[in-house]
Amino acid sequence: MTLMTSIKKTGRSISHAVNGTQPGPEETDILDTLKKEHEEADELLKKLVESDKAAERKSILKKLKAALAPHLKAEDQVVYKAVLKLKGKKEKQDGNEGEMEHALATQMLMKLTKISNATSPEFFRSCEGAQRTRRASR
Amino acid sequence: MLKELVEHHVEEEERNIWSDVKENFSEEERYAMNVAFEAAKKKVKISGLGNLSQANPLTLQYQGNFTCALFYFGSSVFRFQSSSFSGSSPATPER
Fold first, then answer.
1. How many Cβ atoms are within 10 Å of A32's Cβ, its own excluded?
2. What is the pLDDT of residue B46?
3. Chain-chain contact of B24 with A131 (C-beta, under 8 angstroms)
4. pLDDT tier, B86 (very low <50, low <70, confident <90, very high otherwise)
5. In whole angstroms, what is the distance from residue B24 CA to residue A86 CA?
6. Is A124:A49 a contact under the CB 8 Å cutoff?
7. What is the maximum span of chain B, computed from C-alpha positions, in angstroms?
């Protein structure tokens, strides 16, 4: 970070603190936004797994879909696209692997939304089955 | 399974992709990426996830050198990785 950038950033932080405002998208690092959204998704997934009521599960899944779908798509278009344009082999590998995981997460999210009975074993397995199996095998 | 996949993905993304972004893009560029990210999110239609990638992980392959593949079967996720194998029928996820 250059000295000028640091000064500008500090100035903006003071201004927001004094005025009680939040920084806009143009004043926020993409990595801070991604971190916040990852935490929100993690929270919703925990609630989804812990819930045992069908209506509640459906409601949480709807929120999760509304949060994850735009996140995955926008991240592909902006972050992964930029990383894949880099020349390094590691960057390309990271980008390709991340895109695959996004595709897989999207497909699983779609699969979950198609399961009508939110208390069925199929729904349960799709949410957390492997995690429970992994815990049991430790 | 979704929870496990997301946790695994977030862990890897924060370790690998984020370091790539930090190393290769300035803070100003990361701010600009954030603006583009927020704009891209607004364009995504939520209903049906219709315009998200329809790629099937079982058949995902990439142009150039194949790097890894993720499969799911039942409630397990499998990973295959190689730095030298070339995909025979390239198809990238829809962007």
1. 12
2. 52
3. no
4. very low
5. 8
6. no
7. 44
Q: Across-strand partners of B69?
A: B80
Q: How far is CA A36 from CA A92, A131, B14, in A?
A: 25, 23, 12
Pull the structure tokens for residue A22: 């939040």
pLDDT of residue B42 exceeding 70: yes
pLDDT at B92: 37
Sign of CA dihedral B21, B25, B31, B36: negative
**Amino acid code (one letter) for A92:** K
CA dist B14 and A41 (Å) reads 14
Both structure tokens of B84: 């030298």
Nearest to A36 by CA among B10, B50, B64: B10
Nearest CA in chain B to A37: B10
| Token pair 């583009």 in the structure block, residue | B36
pTM (2 decimals)?
Answer: 0.71
Kindly indicate whether the ipTM for this predicted assembly is greater than 0.85, answering yes or no.
no
**Residue at B47: amino acid letter:** S
**Helix (H) or strand (E) run with residue B25 in it:** none
Pair of tokens at residue A40: 């929100």
* Cα A114-B80-B55 angle, rounded to 5 deg: 35
- Token pair of A60, please? 């949480």
Reported as a single tens digit per residue, the pLDDT across A82-91 is: 999 998 999 9
Asked if A77's CB is within 8 angstroms of B5's CB, the reply is no
Q: B41 vs A34: CB contact, 8 Å cut-off?
A: no
